[in-house]
Structures
1.
Amino acid sequence: MEYEVIPGGVTAAQGFLAAGVAAGIKYRSKRDMALLYSEVPAAAAGVFTTNRVKAAPVLLTMEHVAGGRARAVIVNSGNANACTGEQGMQDARKMIEETARVLGIEEKEVLVASTGVIGVPMPMERIMSGIAAAAGELSRQGADAAAEAILTTDTCPKQTAVRLNLGGRTVTVGGMAKGSGMIHPNMATMLCFITTDAAVSPDCLREMLLRATERSFNMISVDRDTSTNDMALILANGRAGNPEINAPGEGYRLLADAVAQVCVYLAREIARDGEGAGRLVEVRVINASTEKDARLAARSVVASNLVKAAVYGQDANWGRILCAAGYSGAVFDPGRVDIFLGGVQVARDGGALPFDEEAARRELETDTVRIVLDFKDGTAAATAWGCDLTHEYVNINANYRT
């Protein structure tokens, strides 16, 4: 089904308000706190980092979202509130408490997220002032400011929204995300917030988000680092008035596809905006025996530093691509694999063949470099996204705190 892409981000769906303000966490003039709010109670679900080291906001939000309901998400950038001990937990709780107070809702309806430097105490006086300021600026026009406020080393905001017909009602799904460095499959390293005005049960919503994450955020890699603060949250407030989706069926499929479309778009934008990146790299494995094998191989190739460096240097070194697929854990016959750089075939049946080096170099110059591995072993396929590895990546991360 075709979905209509529309503006509006997280406030495109009915009944959602947002705001982004400068609380002085990072710089006096930069937005660094965002607030997302549903005017009515909403179903909620989340997916979180697999890192054993989890930031205080992640732990508290995991507790709250387990209830399947939420109305607000308070977010700060500039400080991860990770590895901050009991004080960090207390600070995250204070953020929840203050957000609930200013909005007049229950604390269990508030989710919290943070991103930024690890191991630094939270500037709570500024945080508390920022919560009050954000609550005062909530509006349907606040999506752009909120998307800006959650950024760290990102070079641009990332947001999108789609519209579809569901049970005779117009339903909207919107989202915003941040992520540029510390990005690697395992939930990827990012924050993502999705809203929809569809009526859907918490259990179905959770399943939709898990499936969408597997196709999107778990298929991107920038630098092979998995963070302490990753999370993707979705709120569904039912304002569209469609019959509630509480079981598999046509309505479930349509909404799940819309959620996945939003997630895939945001995942691609995160990969495109990787720290220091010059190009988006898209790796597609086709004709694999199972989807698991296709996913393993695609993720491994897109995460390979040698492949990423070759893309940066515009070197059609296809051996690095086959090598990365080989250590991925995917089951395939190396002697049958064909490899393509865009429209140029650079390997056949796992071996060399004459190809136009200049044509291959031109494929590596494009804004989106497309790599295809044909396993010729089945019908399954998967796609992963990443970016090239540049000198600028080292510069950014060598000076992250300074």
Note: The first strand starts at residue 4 and ends at 5.
2.
Amino acid sequence: MSNSALAGWIGKTRSTRDQITAEQINKIAATFDCPAPPSDNGAYLPPGWHWAFFAEITSISGIGRDGHQALGEFLPPITLPRRMWASGDLQIGKPLTVGETVEKTSTILAVEEKSARSGKLVFVRVGHQFNGDKGGDMHEEHAIVYREAPAPGATAPAPVMPALKATISHTMKASTVQLFRYSAITFNSHRIHYDVDFCRDEEGYDGLIIHGPLTATLLMDLAQKQAPGKRLKRFTFRTVSPLTHAHEFSLHATKPDGENISLWACNHRGELAMMAEAQLD
């Protein structure tokens, strides 16, 4: 598809509605293996948990080869076979609350083609505005990257090591069951999260890919634990390399510097997988 044709998708919008329910919150807590937060009407939804709402419901006949909604519906029909979340920027004016009915309006903000050593890349940046009937107000932008299939014998990108020293670290391992559950509660049918053969044979990974939003949510939770009593107002993150269920991974954070906390996730070799910044007040 030509650049001019891709540019024609900029400005396209879509709206969905959902209610923040206690039942879904309990499913999220069970998936993260953590105590369920307060779920009475009016209780705040924890940061990052909104990704388990506003599902994109697509019939089986509308699914592409990778398990995602076929391109050309809301997202442009980019022919590159691999896609993944590249970055995100979540700004929380007022947290969403239990019992609130929320309208999510999504807009395609930009479509950019780039070249890298690994081949052609296309970035699609999407904005989301969340408006609740009880005053919930959030804005989010995330970028999706589309890439070529891995070339046989291609050299892996040079690893990036953390530049900061952590004051708190936590090591964990994602199970196939946890990844399945997260896919289920987010209605995400992308095969990289549950089909090991597809990951290995089609995408070139050594295991199931841990969802970018799952890792980002864990980092948000770590930020909140670093600053108890404060509220997350902004969280930005960038994916550096994928994490898989085949190995342990680690989460790290610095000591709060005023309102700001730097966070990152690393693979089992200590190489950067995700970088993030949190602002709290």
Note: The longest strand covers residues 101-116.
